[in-house]
Specification:
single chain, 367 residues, binds glycine
Length: 367
Amino acid sequence: MSEHEIEIKLPGRSYRVLTAAGSLDRAGAALGAVIPPGKALLVSDTRVYSLYGERCLCSLVAGGWQPAVALIRPGERAKSLAGAARLYEAAIEAGLDRGSPIIALGGGVTGDLAGFAAATYLRGVPLVMIPTTLLAQVDSSVGGKVAVNHPRGKNLIGSFHQPHLVIADPAVLATLPLRQLKNGLAEVVKYGMVNDALFFAWLEQNLERAMARDEAILAAAIRRSIEIKAAVVELDERESGYRRILNFGHTIGHALEAAAGFGYYLHGEAVNIGALLAVHLARLLGILEAAAADRLAELPRRLGLKQPPAGMTAAAVLEKLNLDKKRRGGELIFVLPSAVGQAVFQPVADRTLLEKLIGDYLAGRSL
Ligand code: GLY
């Protein structure tokens, strides 16, 4: 295995993540090494397809594939059961059989939707992820979570369906807007904060270079993030326990996203604020020493904290947190840092404390 490949080792379902720059152009051959070439369905949104569709198709055809194409609209609304039904139609039209892959070229929405279709069409066909955002490269394309939204909540209908191959080509990030780059960097920082003190220290040195799109730095950040995610998924593929560590920053983050109305915050922007508030919470609860808290808080701050929308109240955010509590059977369990590169699961029942923390953020008080 080359230094640009990471293997996700799962019983009977191991797969590789290719992280070399330019690997998009080798997609067809790389896929042919995993599945015998034949029919395939390439799913992409119209924006990403205009940037990378032709290159991807050329590579697939050169590798002996006969790809059909299904395009979706950019944006979260495409991730619906109706969107999945359109992909089933396209798969039937294209004559896909049980061995024909569905290939997702795009960000998290495309990966989740195409992945959900791959998990369910003919009771499951192979899935290939070609993530084109940093967020999708370091998180959603690896680990097998696929889902569509329901009008009453995000990702309510889904499955675990591991891909056969992931191609996380850092060169495609050249066209990613800076806001989207930072959106992914919030998840990168998360891995350092809760899993790897050395990686955190490396990010302390290199975060600005990553934001400035230094190719070598970004490629190294992507590789290390995927390695960490791989190790977590290998331990707990179905999130029966330990994998929840990856939800660091997400408890408050999801509540902020929901309270603001989906679309105001990018996912990573909300997670970044959630991570900073989790650091403060851990310090106030006596789980985290002051010096470690100061260090940990610095990276979310350096990424930049998005301001809340006008009129958002702490009560509205708490209400969304309580919905989360209901979903988990009564207790709100946070992932909180206990040291640089380590985290614990901690039930938190102190509503006043949570209200104060969220209120501090909403009021722009120094965090
Ligand atoms: N995004 C968290 C996970 O894949 O478990």
